[in-house]
Amino acid sequence: MKNTGYIIALILLGCGCKFNDSTTKTLPIYGNKEPVTKTVNGKQVTDTVYQTIPAFKFVNQYGDTITEKSLEGKIYVADFFFTTCPTICPVMHRNMLPVYNEFKNNPDFRILSHSIDPKYDTVPVLKKYADKMGIAGNTWWLLHGNKDATYTIAKSYLVAVQEKNAQENYTHDGFFILIDKQKRIRGTYQGTDPAEVEKMTADIKILMAEPGQKAAK
Amino acid sequence: MKIWLIISAFMAMLVITASCQNDGQIEFNRFYSNGSVVYQAHCQNCHGAKGEGLQGLIPSLSDSTYLKNNKNTLACQLNGGLKGKITILNKEFEGEMPASKLSPLEIAQVLTYVTNSFGNKLGTVNTDRVNTDLAKCK
Fold first, then answer.
1. For chain B, which domains are there?
2. Separation of CA A206 from chain center
3. pLDDT at residue A43, rounded to an integer
4. What is the mean pLDDT of residues A105-117?
5. What whole-number distance in Å separates Cα of residue A216 and Cα of residue B112?
6. CB–CB of B54 and A131 under 8 A?
7. Which fold has domain A4-208?
8. Which residue, of A214, B110, B116, B131, has the greatest Cβ tally within 10 A?
9. Is residue A97 less than 8 Å (CB to CB) from chain B?
């Protein structure tokens, strides 16, 4: 495979909203934002519209089709990996396990791990990986999909991934991305760092308690 | 006067005992501490900081019996990689460890570290032995 790998650059747009006021119990909202002016009850109101994760279609380790609709009313964490990854993935998923165990009984929580090597990571390979990891049920989905679709969605999660290079290596960064029920980015965490992942677990609890997250369905 | 004689004799004895720490122990200490650096750089991501492995994907390094029984092929397992069914701590694994790009010295160091950490105590693996073992790799 001699693909001229293309890089999806890590674009941390809207860094201005990266503050985190520890006294307020809400998480920041990341990504692009746009002011939208509309008329409500005859008055002009300016609203901020945040970047959201666009529609998608992948297949999980059970062969079920997963779309944005499968995540309606759910808070979720997304990451990018491949089963034969010799470098950071074992570390990321060693760190993800406690997150899985903490929330596996919560029907409104999901983990989405996108394989960036769809050629090798077929549905049965992903199922085997799940079995070996000791994960069952529908909390943690390992997703197979068209390569372009995966690489495109990585961009909306602000994650950098790169196709096989000359050394036959895929590269990608190890971020865990926290998405709320409105499909907005609420946190990015270095998945190889146990301390950051612990912070993510704490943030997930904060997010779950936000008014907009409890009611939304 | 006499007390000083006793004290200096005692001090001298201490110095002699310390320097008499045998060569084997010095070699072990060197290999072990360098081995821990090699381990962190090349093995820890998969096998974990405590050698605990990862669920059913990557085996633990605390199975002393396996390490002892495979003492002479561990160098080859690192050098050429390892694939296929193995049983570690009564659990079956069928994964694949990629070949490492370590020198014989680094292999000796990391094997000294691994086989004397995580509850194992199998002594020094020196470079000569690694070279001998590597010459017999299948």
1. 28-135 (1.10.760.10)
2. 17
3. 86
4. 96
5. 56
6. no
7. Glutaredoxin (3.40.30)
8. B110
9. yes
